[in-house]
Q: What sequence folds into this?
């Protein structure tokens, strides 16, 4: 705009300009604060956190990962198996043709294209830039549509009032929850999860946590050299949890 | 044109009317009690669990929402398809559509884990979610039908009724597509993930909405002692029969398609052969009592002349619809997810086993409470607005029949 015209800006231009400014001021803090918060939480879009589970090393009857996860995140049984939350569970498999048996842990598979995020009406189910799929406990309305949509039965609904939750693991009646990939540990830079720590401590070393996008990481190298299977690969959801030996 | 139709409010002072209101109020109270109990103690007091996450309240809610769309049939036939015989019933049709939808939505909201966060659902939209789309479709439907009703009832606006009728008709088709797609879009579960669920739900809305509407018309005209001729009833019962056959067609196409795919033989065997309560509900209630028997009753040359038979057929269609929704919603969840094809699974989280679900009293109370709320709204609005025509005697529906000696004499069914 030339200087001689600037004095007689039309009313419409003024209103448009003012509206743009107000809109900008309204939206900008949200955008930038979100960015800062994301960065502060270590949600780096260049990384993609994932797990590799070698089922040949996963011992039958061992539930160390399950106990560690539930201890870490304050998930306790209330003595009602049908409504108790389980963030991770040991699944026993028997091949129908051969009778071959083995067991493995199943938890949220942190899909690249998560159906739970697609169907959530309020965007409470969301995926972080670093690939971790979470539930925003402030905006989950408890409709359970994500539980209908999850192909892995990874989510639990909180069916009764809870007390003594862990500060780093917010949980509450009437909302849905699942494995957070120990996001609090990841954001503290610990580079591991409770389940992986427990598995290593017991000497099984069946689970590896790491950055799938970092070619030098153990998980990326083993996936490249040894190969892996995605559960329900037919759905093309590209889960960040991979298995060997299925 | 038909003879001039007069609409009046219902008197609303009779002991029967007051008893009806009182009965509905009691049911609503029980529904609210169930909601409070669930809010205090959590969902563990219901039969729902981490395996079957949607239960009886959802059956009631989906039934009411689907029937709401179909309750608009009469209005659509009049405004969109030019069937003047239905014009006197268009107001009741629109009002019933609105109240049924409100009843269904109340149940859905009160069943949320956090009903107090309704405002979140209204302010945070995920436009990739068919659920979020449905929130807009439901509220939009209420607005569209409200305007449609206003155009019908306000003489100055009468000329716009056809336009509003078209919009409402298209909206109801989209709305029920959305309801069916709640299941149709679920890729994870074998019973869902099928495009045919959307048109199947539309067909269900036509039949269930018509069944409810026939019963409401018969009850309100009997209750207010207004004449109701056989002509309009006969038309409606014939249409109901066609709609029931339409639903059967979609059910047949759905199962035949699934039976062709080997990977879906498990879920098909579960529903059709060895699913216990779900197999029973499918064959005995949905197909036998809810489809075949009503078809026989509605098209039998002699039986179908009796009003009791028409009412019974409509009631059976409703029972069949509830059974169908139970099989779809609960049966679809009870059948285990197949995470590892070719393997038998077991775990402490009920992997690989058919999930158990026993509906609880609070769920029934909530479902009946929402249903009662729908009918309470209907009854109250009819007292204050001119919804009901004073007469639906045959000569009012079609002046040409006034030359025939008796309106009580029924022509053969199918006429």
A:
């Amino acid at each position: 705009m030339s200087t001689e015209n600037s004095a007689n800006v039309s009313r419409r231009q003024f209103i448009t300009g003012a509206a743009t400014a107000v809109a900008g001021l309204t939206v900008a803090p949200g955008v930038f604060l979100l960015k800062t918060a994301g960065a502060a939480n270590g949600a780096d879009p260049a990384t993609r956190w994932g797990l590799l589970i070698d089922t040949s090393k996963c011992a039958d009857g061992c539930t160390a990962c399950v106990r560690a996860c539930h201890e870490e995140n304050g998930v306790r049984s209330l003595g009602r198996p049908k409504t108790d939350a389980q963030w991770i569970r040991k699944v026993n498999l028997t091949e129908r043709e051969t009778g071959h048996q083995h067991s493995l842990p199943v938890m949220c598979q942190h899909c690249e294209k998560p159906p739970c995020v697609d169907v959530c009406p309020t965007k409470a189910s969301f995926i972080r830039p670093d690939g971790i799929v979470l539930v925003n406990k402030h905006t989950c309305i408890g409709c359970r549509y994500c539980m209908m949509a999850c192909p892995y039965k990874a989510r639990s609904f909180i069916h009764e009032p809870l007390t003594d939750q862990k500060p780093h693991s917010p949980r509450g009646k009437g909302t849905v929850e699942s494995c957070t990939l120990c996001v609090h540990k990841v954001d503290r830079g610990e580079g591991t999860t409770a389940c992986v720590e427990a598995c290593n401590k017991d000497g099984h070393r069946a689970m590896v946590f790491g950055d799938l996008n970092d070619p030098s990481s153990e998980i990326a190298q083993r996936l490249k050299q040894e190969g892996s299977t995605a559960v329900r690969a037919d759905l093309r959801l590209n889960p960040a949890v991979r298995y060997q030996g299925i | 044109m038909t003879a001039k139709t007069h609409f009046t409010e219902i008197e609303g002072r009779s002991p029967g009317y007051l008893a009806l209101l009182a009965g509905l109020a009691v049911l609503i109270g029980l529904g609210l009690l169930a909601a409070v109990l669930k809010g205090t103690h959590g969902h563990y007091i219901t039969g729902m669990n981490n395996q079957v996450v949607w239960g009886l309240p959802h059956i009631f809610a989906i039934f009411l929402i689907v029937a709401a769309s179909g309750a608009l049939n009469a209005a659509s036939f009049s405004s969109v398809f030019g069937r003047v015989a239905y014009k006197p019933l268009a107001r009741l049709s629109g009002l019933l559509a609105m109240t049924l939808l409100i009843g269904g939505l109340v149940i859905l909201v009160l069943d949320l884990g956090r009903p107090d966060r309704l405002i979140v659902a209204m302010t945070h939209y995920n436009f990739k979610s068919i659920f979020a789309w449905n929130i807009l479709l439901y509220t939009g439907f209420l607005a569209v039908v409200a305007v449609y009703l206003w155009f019908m009832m306000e003489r100055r606006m009468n000329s716009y009724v056809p336009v509003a009728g078209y919009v409402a008709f298209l909206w109801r088709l989209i709305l029920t597509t959305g309801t069916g797609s709640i299941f149709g879009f679920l890729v994870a579960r074998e019973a869902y993930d099928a495009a045919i669920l959307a048109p199947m739900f539309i067909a269900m809305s036509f039949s269930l909405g018509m069944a409810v509407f026939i019963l409401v018309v018969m009850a309100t005209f009997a209750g207010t002692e207004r004449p109701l001729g056989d002509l309009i009833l006969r038309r409606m019962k014939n249409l109901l029969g066609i709609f029931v056959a339409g639903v059967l067609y979609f059910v047949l196409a759905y199962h035949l398609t699934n039976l062709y795919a080997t990977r879906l033989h498990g879920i098909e065997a579960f529903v059709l052969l060895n699913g216990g309560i779900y197999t029973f509900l499918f064959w005995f209630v949905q197909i036998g009592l809810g489809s075949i028997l009503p078809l026989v009753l509605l098209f039998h040359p002699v039986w179908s002349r009796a009003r009791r038979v028409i009412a019974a057929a409509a009631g059976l269609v409703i029972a069949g619809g509830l059974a169908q929704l139970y099989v779809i919603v609960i049966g679809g969840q009870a059948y285990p997810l197949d995470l590892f094809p070719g393997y038998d699974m077991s775990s402490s989280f009920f992997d690989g086993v058919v999930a158990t679900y026993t509906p609880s009293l609070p769920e029934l109370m909530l479902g009946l409470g929402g249903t009662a709320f729908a009918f309470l709204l209907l009854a109250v609005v009819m007292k204050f607005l001119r919804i009901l025509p004073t007469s639906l005697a045959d000569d009012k529906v079609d002046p040409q029949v006034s030359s025939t000696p008796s309106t009580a004499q029924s022509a053969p069914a199918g006429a």
User: Anything to note?
Assistant: Helices of chain A lie at 3-6, 11-40, 64-73, 115-119, 145-149, 183-187, 194-201, 218-226. The CA atoms of residues 67 and 198 of chain A lie 9 Å apart. The longest strand of chain A covers residues 88-95.
